[in-house]
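Q: I'm a student working through a structural biology exercise. My instructor gave each of us a protein and asked us to get a predicted structure, then write a short paragraph describing it. Mine is Peptidyl-tRNA hydrolase. I'm not confident about reading structure output yet, so if you can add a plain explanation after the tokens, that would really help. Here is the sequence I was given:
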Amino acid sequence: MTDGVWLVVGLGNPGPTYAGHRHNIGYLVTDELANRLDGKWRAHKSGRADVVEGRLRGTTPGVPGPRVVLARSRTYMNESGGPVKALATFYKVQPDHVIAIHDELDIAFDTMRVKLGGGDNGHNGLKSMRSSLGTGDFHRVRVGIGRPPGRQEVHDFVLSNFSSTERKVLPFVVDTAADAIETLITEGLEKTQQRFNS
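A: Happy to help. First, here is the predicted structure for Peptidyl-tRNA hydrolase. I'll explain a few features afterward.
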């Protein structure tokens, strides 16, 4: 699983207003990965995304690990696909080497699922990526946020901050999702699913 460049996309909305929202879990996970690579976000020449380039730790001593490009779109969630397509073209990354990290309503908070392909399940970021890439055959790290309580609208729920209880656990959730991405790239989908699909 170590051949070629991997494009790891954190889905979210740009700017401080959205920073702590449930919808921005993808940004939080790519931040953690950037820290692990000792990388700093910089504007990509396309002007539509920020990137960090680096290599994961190799599994064999002395042999560098796979090359990765971490990416965050500068557009809103529902327009993520264009910038992702531009980066995939620039770095010559095939869809099966693209990983999207996103919030998932149908999975309980503090759990996640890793998979290849599938629909968008009403998620605007995934919908935009599918449309721009011309396929849904990219990897997804689906980080659970659960369903809104009571009668709260889904839109309001995803664009709200994590609760104080959730915020205590959030660093562990982010850390685990970052581990899952590293495992996916270095060891493949099957081993990742066995280990992380809680």
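A: Here are two points you could use in your paragraph. The beta strands are 6-10, 42-43, 49-55, 67-73, 98-104, 112-116, 139-144. The CA atoms of residues 130 and 136 lie 5 Å apart. It's a good idea to check both against the output above yourself.
Q: Great, thank you!
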